[in-house]
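Table S2 (text version). Query chain:
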Amino acid sequence: MHIFPLNEGSYSVDSTKKFIPFDPVTDSYRDRPGSLFIHVQPFLVKTDTDLILFDSGLGFKNNQDELILHQNIRNAGFDPEDVSLVLMSHLHYDHSGGLVIERNGRWEPSFPGAVHVIQRGEWETAFASRSSSYHKYIFDALQRGVQIDFVEGSGTYKPGISYELSGGHCQYHHVFLVETNGYKIFFGGDELPEPEQLIRKFIAKYDYDGRKAMNLREQYGKKAAAENWICLFYHAKSNPVGQVSYGDDTFMVKPVSY
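Corresponding structure-token output:
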């Protein structure tokens, strides 16, 4: 089992919902008032049977007109064509943008040979929603060009891979647990997006059900500590892979070597 964080960089997001690259070394927070600053980090996990991509980032390109996501996969020692499973926590743009790539004016799937696992309710919501959080051209390209395995509620997708409908960040958000070679790898998407959110309790306005999302963070944190999960933090500023400990009503996250 090997884990590869696929760092797509830091971004600011303002009321227009546009993601603008942000370099904390050269850019100033003061120049972007009212913006939310986030880090975007999909993950690649190699098991005995699959090369799994967890969410796909924004889909930004490098100077060679290649997806940063594809470049990062190559840097990890694989080809994008090697990805066999794409497990999507939800379909908001900052998690689904890298699912497609524009070639000759046409949007095409970035991983045409991979099976994409998506919660059916989230897929239907993405098509019906008028929210700028969903970009429909992504889903049009997917349904034309890839195998999509729709799941509903909670269950087991295949031996060693289970999913749970969480419904905090968005109504049909789900989380994944991969069990392989004695390890348990938890991907919480935007229910548990960064280690810092375990330390402080808060209700976020950007969540579909803020109170539920807050409670889920605590539930997942306690279970991660009790069962020795390796947690993948999609929006972590640092230490994207960690193990949680809990005691005296306090969480701590220790970085994990991978």
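Notes on Table S2: The mean pLDDT is 95. Residues 2-188 form a domain with the Metallo-beta-lactamase; Chain A fold (CATH 3.60.15.10).
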